[in-house]
Amino acid sequence: MLIIQIILYFTLIFNLLSCLPIDTESTMTHNDDFNTTFSSIKSIENLTSDEIKPELGVFEYLNYTTFYYLTFSPTGQYLFFVKQHPLWYKYTYEHSLWLYNTETEKETLITKDLYSYIKPQWSPSGNYIALFLTKQPVTNITNDHEIWLEPFDFFKSYIFLYSVDSKEFLSIGIKYQIPKVFAWSRDDSSIYFVNDESNKYAYNSNTIYRIDFNRKNSTISTEIHSLKNISFSISEFLFFPSENKLVFTSTSTAIKNFDDSEIYSIDLQNLRSVTRLTNNKIEENQLQLSSDGKNVLFSVGVVLHSAPSNSAQGFYMLNLTNEQTTHFKNYFMGNIMGYAPKAEGGVYILGQWKTNVGIYSQKSSDEGWIYHPGFVGTYASIVSSSNPNCSIAFVYSESQLPMEIYCANNINDLSSAKQITNENELFTQRNLPQIEVYNWTNPDDHRIIEGILHYPPGKFHWTNLPLLVLIHGGPNLASLNQLYGNPYNWAPLAASNGWLVLEPNYRGSTGYGDEFIAELRGKPLSLAGKDILSGVDQLIKDGIADPSKLTVGGCSFGGSLTNWLITQTERFNAALSCSSSFEHVSAWGTVDAPDFYKYWFNGLPWEIPRVYQNEAPIYQMDKVRTPTYICTGGTDERVPASQSYILKRALDSREIPAKLQIFSNEGHQFSSPMSGFTKITEELLWLKKYGKGDN
């Protein structure tokens, strides 16, 4: 193992030394002569305020910890959360579960082997956490111990119960594959779970089970009951104690049809029938019990398909007694990123407005939103409890601060929240790029567009800078004021390598109103492309960007826009196309989400063939002159690798420099941090070779 680590270390050193910041011919607009280049792999030191911080390296940027699954215990004394961190020498990510005691303010590791696809859940009493693991638990360094109440069998799955008091793991064999979803029953003695049995029945089929368990001394007895076979795929799953019902959402197995998503219930006293509770033809998600346990809450994101007129983004409350759904009043023009039931009633809301995400609250369905000032940046998760030691916990970051978890005692004093994790401290010891919001106008329809500018460290407000336009995917996503190390949105790292980076929130981006999104329909690449090129023109006009050193790149829809933009202008010296679409009819026929094309193109290929052709880069390849680096996952189902092969062949046919890199075992999202490292390293090398227009 040590030999592997040493080899990896020197491999990283070699690659990083190949990606030192580019030289520029930029000019200054103020008295700041800081222009020192540091090695990307300088070791972490205790820096004093008088020392100059080194700039961010590739490995450092990707060696980032993210947080998710924040949940308070029923009493609010404990908060568990999951950390995701790269395991470089294993070519994967570690998912560890942690427990934070709000009274002692101490953090305890539960496991480093969490099966991350299923969210851990507190038992009704708060004495246990139910979870799934990727391998048998082992004793940790604190000499805490685990007990096994039956022999571990690698040929069947286990539900693990972690005791908060004894710090023991109890293993409960369930004989089947790891379930899709599960939910505790009324007490700590049974769990409901769902298995996918489509292969068994040769059609789309899920089966609901209940496992009862009883522990006596050193033995445990279990009994599994098959309750109901459901003829569709279950996505989210919730036990509703006051009505003794199970509530769940349906979903298509391949995201083929948004109409497949609805909410259903089944009465545990009468298992013969399944009741459909919604008929919205929209994707309901984030099922949660209201704080009083009398209603089911759920959210609806941006509606990206034809739906009834009463279907809208926002929060809904479902009364299972009368089966009536109430829409929470919503005058917010931005995007809803998440929510949490308030302990005292109502909900907390994470609302994105333009480039920031803030915290709002709503007391009841007929009252308006209340904005709660605090940190300016991006709140990524929020949970609530009745414990005064930490009544609100959230994940937060901004361009100069990496993602961490915070505890607040007062929603009206968020700026006094206490940081309870420090996993990404390294980023506070680096000289990070400064950002600003930049606005421009699309001259065709006079729409104001904005984006985020990342200046190279020490060059804030310099002029004549080499430009990288880095385009977000989606399109119904947005570039935000946050610091989040990942291989797709790597503007801070590109800026640290000498590039002025523009992240445009083009038409279709969230956070600017429903109309801003809807305007993209029927012209998804041409309109977004015009928005972006207008921004480039304005940067040149303002003297900020060097017109001779322009580059462009992006992943997913951002990669598709990259392919489009190099057919619209010869000004880009280099392009970076990642997991992108190139010819839309073949893409529609092979992707796992064909409704994407039906919505954004306003129809199916044979209904509007002209739109599919006019919006496809392949039919304008005669205009392309830009050297292009292409990469994609070999098993990508969202945008199949065949699209990248077509792009590479088209560039080769035009005798334009191109490189295609296939990550054979990767999908649309990389599962190995080394794939992300290789991707960014190759992209920086490509920019270094072609970006300045010397070749």
UniProtKB/TrEMBL annotation:
Keywords: Hydrolase, Signal. One of its GO terms (molecular function) is serine-type endopeptidase activity. The keyword NADP does not apply. GO terms for biological process: proteolysis. Coiled coil: none annotated. It comes from the Eukaryota. SUPFAM superfamilies: alpha/beta-Hydrolases, DPP6 N-terminal domain-like. InterPro entries: 6-blade_b-propeller_TolB-like (IPR011042), AB_hydrolase_fold (IPR029058), Peptidase_S9_cat (IPR001375). Residues 1-19 form the signal peptide. Residues 493-691 form the Peptidase S9 prolyl oligopeptidase catalytic domain. This is Peptidase S9 prolyl oligopeptidase catalytic domain-containing protein.
